[in-house]
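#structure-requests
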Amino acid sequence: MIAVLRHLLASWLLILAMALPGWAQETPDYEIWIGVADRAEQVIDGQRASDAALEVLRARLVAWRSEFQQAQQINSARIETTRAQIDALGPPPEEGATEPADIAAQRTELNARLAEEEAPARRAVAEFQRAQGLIGEIDALIAQRLTGELLSLGPSPLNPANWPEAVEALTGWIGAMVSETERLVASDLRRAELHQNAPLIVVYLLIALVLLARGWRWTGHLMARAIAREETSPGARLSLFFLSLLQVLAPVVGVAAIVAAIEATGFVGLRASALTDQIAAITVFLMVSVWLGRQVFPARETAVRPLNLTTGERRQGRWIAIIFGIALGLGTLIDEIANSGAFTDAARLTLFFPVVIALGLLLFRLGQLLISHVRHETTEDADLSVPNQIIRVVGWSAMILGVSGPILAAIGYYTAGISFLLPTTMSLALLALVRILQRLVTNLYGTLTGRREGLDEALTPTLIGFVLAILSLPLFAMIWGVRAAQLVDLWQQVIQGFSLGGVTISPRNFLVFALVFAAGYTATRLVQATLRSSVLPKTRLDAGGSNAVLSGTGYVGIFLAAVIAITAAGIDLSSLAIVAGALSVGIGFGLQTIVSNFVSGIILLIERPIKQGDWIEVNGVMGYVRDISVRSTRIETFDRSDVIVPNADLISGVVTNMTHHNNTGRAIVPVGVAYGTDTKRVEGILREVAEAHPMVLLNPPPSIFFRGFGADSLDFEIRAILRDVNWVLSVKSDLNHAIAARFAEEGIEIPFAQRDIWLRNPETLRGDATTTASGPPKTPLPNHDPSDFDTDGADGEPET
């Protein structure tokens, strides 16, 4: 076991070393390559090779191209060393200037050595470009042939003259198959083989009988039990999904057992074997279509319905899926029979034309169902959603292609017509499969997490579904005619990377950057945790200073991690200097506020005019500082609401910090007493009350001020320094309670505002008017001068 582990470790180290730049590569055999390249040019110029032969030649050229690409790294480490030596000598002298002879000789020697070391890599680059050009010529030739086939006009299947030929070819093939089978049956060797394989044939037939007769029913009973138990839970839907797969798999295995039994008889010839193979293919097409139809157009009303359709429309959708499978299976069978019988193009197109008509009609009807779904989803008030817009486009496209495909095939453009129908049909099936898999991922996520609500809005299944959609793109490309070799080239190009501003970006760069940055980020968090738990508690820094140190450590650590990751990934930032210079103008205008807040946040962390936990007032907002970030500061007001203040306002504006250096602060308590009270006595009582409170500092002692003579009272004021200004409201309340109690004990009156109203001539209000028992006087009151009313309260007792 240890030896195996050592061998695996050595293998991985070897692969890693070969992947690193500077690994010594062998020089390609250019003599063999030149022969291959010359032969490829002759084949391309002749344009007589088949597509299959061109694909083989292209694969050989791709192998040479990969070898040349690896050879470009020959002597890379030595080349870097030699260049570093040349750079160490300094720049070459300007024209007309001289340099010391030993330095000039060393520079000449190093330049010659550099040219010799770069020669193999330069040759590899040149041959790489030649191989790349030949591959492009082959791709262009194959694409040209495909375009010619699409635009080629062949025999029309509607021409009655082609019908007898098609019928004669088909009956001839059937007759040849029957004759071939009769000869095999008459063979004694085949009969002996039949007797020898009889038990195996019986087993195959029994398996087929059980699966075809009972398999569908048994799985149906299991599905009914799952539905009756709890259909709406993700686990039940997951069980129904796998049971539906098992249900359609049973007939496939049963038909495969029948085919195996037929082949075991030994009476299957070349033509019959083509027929039996296609029987299995037809079954697969049919059952896959049945399964997709049941998933997209479910029969149960309680099942998840991808499309908003009525019960009748869903029934039509299931029948369309079944007929699609039959049509595709028959098309495959006809194509195989035509190939094995060497049918002419006229006979092949005539036999295949009914399948084309069926595919066109089914595609047209399927497009109508998609449009019906969009119509059911559309309301007058709401706009059409993006998915429904895509479904509407797909529906109209399916209807148009369903009509144009058979028309083109009927005219004689068979390749163009079938190139519309089959890719569209396969694309719709692949879209349905991707949607089904996305729903499977959602149900699996709900089963694992125990969630039942909001699964469609969960992030994890959404991301996985997006990845599934991305992975399906190569399949869509192959359906619509992109060759596998082209996809492989595209993938290799993605792996090798692309150039952006003189910098090569590749998945390897991203992987190295992610790993190094993740390591640096983790190290930064570990350092912060160590400072928070072990170092900072042993210092004299307060909470705000500790927070500033932790924040600064985090910013510096993340910045260094990003710089180291970029350097480790091989990204030369100097190559992006021009792009960064151009972007800086836009940043200066568009992001100046953000940059200003960022710089202000750094200043706040360094100068610390405010810190976490301070009681401040800014822009009319008063509260405690709860968090200081690089862009903004969060202030928690006294009513427990959070106010986000940009850092630039804290730097450029006026900020009142109640607890900047310490928590001591002053409390002012105004007090009023009635006129006639002994002021010295009041001063002594107030001093005793203030000094008795535990929160009031005695050094400096509290001060009592006689502020003056108010309109209603003699005004005093207590000014005391508190140990913690955060308790100022509680202290004021306690002092007011104590003052009220002492004044009550001492008989000192706390006045309240009162006004006396004097009437100079109240008789004018009575007048000569007589009053009745039911209302006011009938004679109106005379007009009075405002001076008749005296409100100064200085002429004696009030009169009413």
